[in-house]
Amino acid sequence: MRKIAVVTGNRSDYGLLEPLIIRMQTANLSVHVIVLGSHLSPFHGFTMHHIVASNIIQVENMLASDTANGTCKSIGLAISGIADVLNNLCPELVIVLGDRTETFAAALAAHICRIPIAHIHGGELTSGAFDDALRHGITHMATYHFTATPAYQKRVIALLKATNRPVDKVWNVGALGLDGIEKYKKPYNPDGKPLIVFHPATMEPIENTISQLRNVLIALNERSHYYNCIVANCDPAGARLNETMRQYCIKGNVHVSLPRHDFLRMLADASVIIGNSSAGIIEAPALCTPTINIGRRQLGRLTGQSIFYSNGTKEDILSTLNRIAKADLYFDNLYGNGTAAEQIIRHLPCG
Q1: Which residue ranges of the chain lie beneath pLDDT 50?
Q2: Which CATH superfamily is domain 182-326 in?
Q3: Hey, is 127 helix, strand or coil?
Q4: Which of 66, 55, 48, 59 is nearest to 10 (CA)?
């Protein structure tokens, strides 16, 4: 039985990886899930309890700090801990997704240990966060590449060609976040509760994002909207963002974390998702929920016609909500047909 290691460091990447993990476990594969980061943090909901896997290996790496210095130290601990796991486990392949610091740490450890890497969601751009450098760095270390759109596939190929790397193992499979999403889809609900999801835009002063979040909540409070909020990931200064959310969330519920299926139901029921999360770009259109994207964090991603942009002032947020209420909404999906996990397994050497 072939041994595969899958790395997850937070609730968002595990929610995307879950369909792939489940499929691999039903195939003739020995799947070991390396769990680290905010999964093991009580401040972020201790989300390792959401993980569906028979072989779970924990790596304690996260410091009780959300400063840049603390993040750097957490990355160092992650590299050290994952290297120990890989040395003992000796997997044939390490699967990582996206661009988080834990993902980069896992890819670097696997690269130095000379274990092939499969990277999911490469080739994307999010110029408002420092993720681009991490994501493209993982691309240069990986052997197998699975992108979410043809445009991202072309970018991965261009990155590899720039350093004379092979380009024959780059496949466009669509976004894993759309696997299994169809069962949650329902007609647009203009009377649903808005959903607020903000994360730090790590290439900008945190005060910008705090101001945007505060303006959103003030606007919704003034309109007598009831709403749902989900706290930020464990990025630098995320705690300050979460403190602002709790302070100004007068007519809403603040959720530390949600299982993937509960999040998708909430998103499908929402009248709009507001913030700077990739869920507003990828999953929301597939669930017929419009998006108000604020700030630069997602700048560079391909977006459909149901994504509206706001500068983050209270007046512009209210104006954008009115535009959505009057719009003839069209939900176009740019991120595949929900078969990414099946295609990934088909292309992997152990598939």
Answers
A1: none
A2: Glycogen Phosphorylase B; (3.40.50.2000)
A3: coil
A4: 48
